[in-house]
Design goal:
The complex is a heterodimer of chains A (about 270) and B (about 240). With about 270 residues, chain A is an all-alpha fold. Chain A has one domain. Chain A has 11 helices and no strands. Chain A is globular. By secondary structure, chain B is an alpha/beta fold. Chain B is built from 9 helices and 10 strands. In chain B, the strands form 2 sheets. In chain B, strands 6-7-8-3-9-10 form a 6-stranded mixed sheet, sandwiched between helices. A 4-stranded antiparallel sheet of chain B has the order 2-1-4-5, covered by helices on one side. Chain B is globular, with a radius of gyration of 18 Å. At the A-B interface, helix 1, helix 5 and helix 11 of A face helix 1, strand 6 and helix 2 of B.
């Protein structure tokens, strides 16, 4: 595996996607799990939204803000998990050495993980959005074109985080696995998923505005409350995401090289 | 490879070794635990970055020109596994695609026949016996018909019958393909039978380098196992004589 090669061979990316697809199909509990948590989330928060909306004026006016935030948060969180779990499968299977010595390049490997993140996300999120329509009268898809901007920005952030944590696990072994499950939650309070940025102390707002998801959640609230699509927010988020993706790729390559120096690709356990 | 060195923090795993391997030959790396065999092979594969020195594989510098080489080589090692939840056929299909193998279905059928995988080719890899897993790992290592094959303990944990069968297959593969094979092993009989040349390593350095017969003559021993014990216990050639 040549670390910095920008070669992209679709047949190699396809081979890796096929590998994860076989893995998904080999276990129905894994498939079910992809839908289980998003379904629980939407049911819990959906009923909460219903209750609050009947008692509070703001939520009555901005119908679906809470449910919309839950769905968008799940895109961010499960996008990263979908990426990282496919990567962890290689670590658990002790297959990293086979891949690193094959003609697969790091870029192709990461593109395959991104593809799998989309597939896993679709399996989890589509039933979630259907439940929102059937039970809570919230049609996520009625957001229209802005939804594409929200989705793209969130998935780009989730990949950037996924790439970075995968590099950490590659370098430090499965002892660093817990980062995969927890790092995204560190962003949750700062990305202002359920409340506007103004709620934060002034100095913390700067931190919040440095995170691309903050723009998405603000944009969603603007759309649902004021019926305005803030393209300026989406473009800023896109710029930040581009920088984040480049930085995470650079970090992944640096961590991969560090793993080669430390010999950790030979002992990918804890 | 030239003046190849690997230092992990303060421990020197490989200490300035240099050797070249003739194409079409089988070379054995011999040495006790911690001699540096696995690290040497891992550096050739590109899994471990040398602290200093150069590695050239099939005429190309590694890792700079690895794109030209990785599709022409392959390996088997106890440090990696095949994904266990996938069937043997699925695993071979994926690796075949990664290596852009032409006529993949036919190639898998050919390997299944040669390595006797047919009975369990649609079984999950994790449910195979040690001998079956080794044959599957060998099939993966041969999927792209490699010119260079790196093997780390290829018959470890196999019963004598299966181990003998694997050695026979490797001999036939070398003859048919004209492939170059480098193998690390603790099994002296295996090295005697398979290798044209033996490189004995100790504490990261090359202790001796010759044909199995040449080494046995120099140490005045009738088996490589006796030579191995001499080297491991610090008895040099002159003392042995």
């Amino acid at each position: 595996m040549n670390d910095l090669s920008l070669r992209i061979a679709p047949h190699r990316i396809g081979a890796m996607v096929l590998r994860y697809w076989y893995l998904l199909l080999s276990s129905w509990p894994r498939l079910l799990e992809l839908m289980y948590w998003p379904t629980l989330q939407i049911i819990t928060w959906g009923f909460l939204q219903t209750y609050i909306a009947s008692n509070a004026g703001f939520f009555a006016r901005a119908g679906g803000t809470l449910i919309g935030a839950v769905i968008l948060w799940d895109i961010l969180f499960r996008g990263q998990l979908g990426f990282s779990i496919s990567f962890l499968e290689e670590m658990w299977a002790r297959n990293i050495g086979n891949l690193m010595m094959s003609p697969l390049t790091p870029l192709e490997f990461l593109l395959a993980l991104m593809t799998m993140s989309l597939i896993r996300l679709a399996i989890g999120i589509i039933p979630m959005t259907l439940i929102a329509v059937w039970f809570f009268d919230f049609n996520f898809y009625s957001l229209g074109l802005p939804l594409v901007a929200f989705f793209c920005n969130l998935i780009f952030t989730s990949w950037a985080v996924g790439i970075f944590v995968s590099g950490l696990v590659l370098r430090n072994g499965l002892g660093a696995e817990s980062i995969v499950w927890t790092l995204m939650f560190a962003l949750m309070p700062l990305a202002c998923v359920y409340y506007p940025v103004q709620v934060l102390p002034h100095w913390l707002q700067w931190v919040a505005w440095s995170l691309p998801p903050t723009y998405v959640f603000e944009g969603m609230r603007a759309l649902l409350s004021d019926h305005v699509f803030r393209s300026d927010l989406m473009l800023t988020a896109l710029g930040l995401n581009a920088a984040l993706l480049l930085a995470s790729f650079a970090a992944f390559i640096a961590l991969l090289r560090s793993a080669r120096r430390a010999g950790s690709l030979l002992s990918s356990g804890e | 490879m030239a003046r190849l060195t690997k230092i992990y923090k303060t421990a020197t795993a490989v200490d300035g070794i240099s050797f070249a391997i003739r194409r079409g030959s089988i070379t054995g790396l011999l040495g006790g635990n911690g001699a540096g065999k696995t690290t040497t092979i891992a550096m050739i594969m590109g899994l471990v970055q040398p602290t200093s020195g150069q590695v050239e594989v099939l005429g190309h510098s590694m890792p700079e020109e690895s794109a030209a080489v990785l599709g022409r080589m392959n390996f088997e090692s106890p440090y990696v596994d095949m994904p266990m939840r996938l069937t043997v056929r699925q695993n071979l299909t994926i690796f075949g695609r990664l290596y852009a193998v032409d006529h993949l279905k036919e190639r898998i059928a050919e390997l299944a026949s040669q390595l006797d995988l047919t009975d369990f080719i649609d079984r999950a890899s994790g449910k195979l016996s040690a001998g079956q897993k080794t044959r599957v790992a060998l099939a993966k290592a041969l999927i792209n018909d490699p010119e260079l094959l790196l093997l780390d303990e290829p018959t470890a944990s196999l019963d004598p019958d299966t181990a003998d069968w694997v050695r026979g297959h490797l001999e036939r593969y070398r003859e048919r393909r004209g492939a170059t094979i480098l193998l690390a092993s603790h099994n002296m009989l295996e090295v005697e039978r398979l290798c044209d040349r033996v490189i004995i390593m100790k504490r990261g350095r090359i202790e001796d380098d010759d044909s199995p017969a040449g080494i046995m003559v120099r140490y005045n021993r009738s088996t490589l196992e006796e030579v191995f014990l001499d080297v491991a216990r610090g008895r040099d050639r002159e003392a042995a004589q």
